[in-house]
Amino acid sequence: MKESESKLYSPCTIKEIQRVMLNIMIEIDSLCRRHDIDYWLSDGTLLGAIRHEGFIPWDDDMDISMTYDSYIKFIAVATEEFKDKFFIQNYKTDKNYDIVGVHTKIRDKQSIFIEEWDKTYQQGAFIDIFVMNQFKENNIFYKLKKGYYRLIALSLVPISIHDSKINRILKRILKTIFFSYNNRKFIIKAETANQKHKQVGEMYSYNFSTPMRIKYSYSEEDIFPLKRHSFEGYEFLVPNNYDKVLKTTFGDYMTLPKEENRYGHALFYSLQKNI
How many distinct helices (H) and strands (E) make up the chain? Predict the structure, then answer.
């Protein structure tokens, strides 16, 4: 954080930063209701909704997913309706944005949420938006293409203190193979591939820019019809068969992880001072 910013912001608790993200989510849900746009809670946020009826106590971000068509419609209306409230962040709107794996972030403008030091992209608390491609289950070409993009993405994702020794070695090996890529170059390449990919088929999978395993694929019946579920006293959309989705992603998702595996994403977060 810059010295000038430290005078405007003060450190906050995880509960306070969760509240900021919840307020963004309430606005997203309201916009999607008004414009008949589908989304659903996903990943750790979906897990929190089902297991805790709210945030996982140690989680400090929120995730939602959309089909590609819904995402295009969402961006079109959110760009206008959110312009005074939030920052819609992706490689097109922020020239310094280089986060591999997340298509777009809806950022709060009055907070700081640092995942990596020495970055110059906008760093407010956020909602992650993941975009889903559709494909035919027997489409081997799609799976190979997805696997190829995943390997590049993994080579660009920073090594974390939480990575296993095997993952650390794998990332280093992949980085030597895909040395010609930087984050923004890959993000733009993957987005171009997403736009060219025909949105047809009975299966849904994270798009090419997201380094999720190909096993994270779901049928039409797994996702739709969407239904509402309690989250921190509000109701947001979740997949039709959320049990299958969560088992695919987390396995025995109702069992709490070990204490040492309970951690969030941020290195630091703070809120703007009331001056």
Answer: 9, 12
Q: What distance in Å separates the CA atoms of residue 54 and residue 74, rounded to the nearest whole number?
A: 24
Would you say 258 and 275 are in contact if contact means Cβ atoms under 8 Å apart? no
Instruction: Please state the domain extents for the chain.
Output: 3-270
Measured CA to CA in angstroms, residue 52 lies from 56, 251, 253, 254 at distances of 6, 17, 11, 9
**pTM for this model (two decimals):** 0.91
The partner residues of 228 in beta bridges, in order of sequence, read 237
What are the structure tokens assigned to 55, written together?
A: 């945030």
Torsion angle defined by CA atoms of residues 206, 212, 216 and 221, in that order, rounded to the nearest 10 degrees? -20
Look up tokens 């025995």; give the residue.
252
Q: How far is CA 202 from CA 17, 194, 237, in A?
A: 37, 17, 21
As a whole number of angstroms, the distance between CA 236 and CA 215 comes to 25
Give the mean pLDDT per block of 10 residues along the chain (275 residues). Answer: 60 94 98 98 97 97 95 97 96 95 94 90 95 90 91 88 84 94 94 82 89 82 98 98 95 94 89 67
